Description:
With 313 residues, the protein is of the alpha/beta class. The chain folds into 2 domains: 7-41 and 159-300, Rossmann fold (3-Layer(aba) Sandwich); 44-146, Rossmann fold, CATH 3.40.50.1100. It is built from 9 helices and 10 strands. The chain has helices spanning 44-57, 74-86, 100-108, 125-138, 154-157, 160-169, 185-194, 247-261, 267-283, and strands at residues 16-18, 29-34, 66-70, 89-95, 112-116, 144-146, 176-180, 200-206, 241-245, 288-293. The protein has a 6-stranded mixed sheet with strand order 1-2-10-7-8-9. A 4-stranded parallel sheet has the order 5-4-3-6, with helices on both faces. The chain is globular.
Amino acid sequence: MGVLESVIAAVGNTALVALGRVVPAGSARVLVKLEGANPTGSMKDRMAVRVIERAAADGRLPEGGTVVEYTGGSTGTSLALVCAARGFRLRLVSSDAFSQEKRDHMRALGAEVIEVPSDRLRITKELIEAMMEQAARMSEEPNTFYCDQLHNTDVADGYRPMGEEIWSQTEGDVDTFVQAVGTSHSIQGVARVLRGRGVRIVAVEPAESPVISGGEAGSHHIEGIGTGFVPPLWRDDLVDEILTVSTEEAEGMARRLAAEEGLFAGTSSGANVVAALRIAKRLGPGHTIVTLLIDSGLKYLTTDLYSSHSSGG
């Protein structure tokens, strides 16, 4: 690799790994992209680089300016990395509903973090909307760039290289791409590359809050996905199928991935694999499913997912 000019150049080009022990016999091949290998341990590094660089280039983010955003933690941590490397101030709105590791990581990278109290640590539509409202008020200050990830069209472009990486790494041998939906940008960015090449795109959302599927909003504990409302830039035409996965299923699979595959990831990654295995069972041998391990399990060590008092501990 040689010497990189900055940590920003280390983003992307993550490994693609075949799952073994968690894939039932008679299933299609399932490959996972190790996005936890990005500098902050999350795929969100990809979008943070694109968003900040474009905003700085076109003047929306002035030299010496401040970036403002609402975040469950991974986007904020990624923005903190890029802002630290580029010399921008960063103010973030998060909540105690998200892991302590994420909030600590954002602060360690120099971000100011304001926390909106949650209802019993649950991720709900009301919580996300309150975070967004707080960030919008903060963005009214001078010399401020409001990232506003849910409405920012630059975000999806940050994930297009991931689609190209998947196509290259599989040498075009991929039938289905599976990804959980938060802002919906990652699945859209990849779909814009792969769908035109004959790859089916499958979205995943929490079973407790299946709003994209047309169900009612509810609370869940799968961090990073399931905002409780249809993302503003969501596009039905880029997705072939939507599957729902419960928090319990997602957590159980995340623990299995760690214990049986040596792959340490978060709950949304577990949801991705649960859905991918359903597709793999349906398609059978001779097919290939690709999904993402969205982030590192190091972001969740003190949560019920991996802490010693959890059911899987």
